Amino acid sequence: MNKDVRYLLSYTAITGTTVAMFRVLFNLFLRDAGYSNSVIGSTQSAALWGTAIIGLLMGILADNLGRKRMMIYTTVLMPLVAIMMTFNVSVPVLLTLSFFRGGFAAARYTIVLAAFTTSTDSKSRAKAFGANFGLMMGSGVFGNFIGGLLGDIIGLRITLILSMIVTFAALIPLFKLEPDKIKTERVNPFDFSGFDKQQKKIMVLFFISTATVGFGAGLFIHFGNLIFKDLFGMTPTGIGIALSIAQLGTALGSTFSHKLGKTFGPLKFVLTMQILVIPLILSFAFIRDPYAFTVVYALRFVFMNTTVPIMNSVVFSHLPSDKLSTISGMNGFLNNSVRAVAAMLFGVIVGASISGYTTLFILSTVFYAASAFIAFLIYKSYENLETTKDLFDR
Questions:
Q1: How far is CA 315 from CA 177, 220, 308, 309, in A?
Q2: What is the pTM of this model?
């Protein structure tokens, strides 16, 4: 594992912890401040729109101005904006700040994926992607637990501010990264005319898969803390533990995802997990025991997210390296724009009664099923190609 990969993993560990601390408490903070589900949903939607729009711009700029530079800029700006959101601001200001926080936070996904791709070869890439995603989930476990615990002990606002101050420590490994070797001077970043048929096909299928699962997840995934509070009356500490259980399993699964892909076949494993997720999502509509719900919630989280580094490593390895940040930004735009629309529907569907959660989860199941069908198409077309086999040394 080269030094740039180690620095990127350090960046992931720090931001994964602090962002989880912030995320596990922020909706609860808004609820305690008297905001309705509709406003909370709109706040999450604004953040997702920012992730989509600014994230796309960041991806394009990273391919042209340098990934290291853009990651440093966003690591400074994201916590500053997030801290401003913890003060008593009007709803329009809150939504504006949320938009920019989401946009600056997008670098954690769009630019980092491209950086990992160009910092590894085909033999180490799947392992590095798995380690990064596993570390992101693992640090999230710690962040969820610490965030929930400190929220009960020292208060929600202080914990939110503390988490963002610690985020500045992520600048240390970023400054140590080597300067970018790939810089382009393209007039049109969206010119994909040089792609061959297989490259265009996997890019389109990847985008469609992202959009379908993104909408299904956007209906509920950003409101896990509110779901556990509304359905079961959990405290911040209890919510942090419940969400940590889900992320712990994902951290372990993602870290060894390259071995799972090698053993079962990477895209076959992805397809199997996505099919298994469908009945789990549907069961959310009817399970009302907190322990059973937590177990099923954790299984869904593990099954779905363990496949992420496998799918990303396969897709990105089939695409030209000088377009990776742009494509990652486009994928992020699709993912977060559909999630933004779905998040706006959260308050509408759930309303003021917990009975709305049944409708919410049934609707989500439909979109997860559509994503599984796209996973089947990718499996049929790319499982046995040499580029895929090289990643997992089969």
A1: 25, 26, 11, 10
A2: 0.71
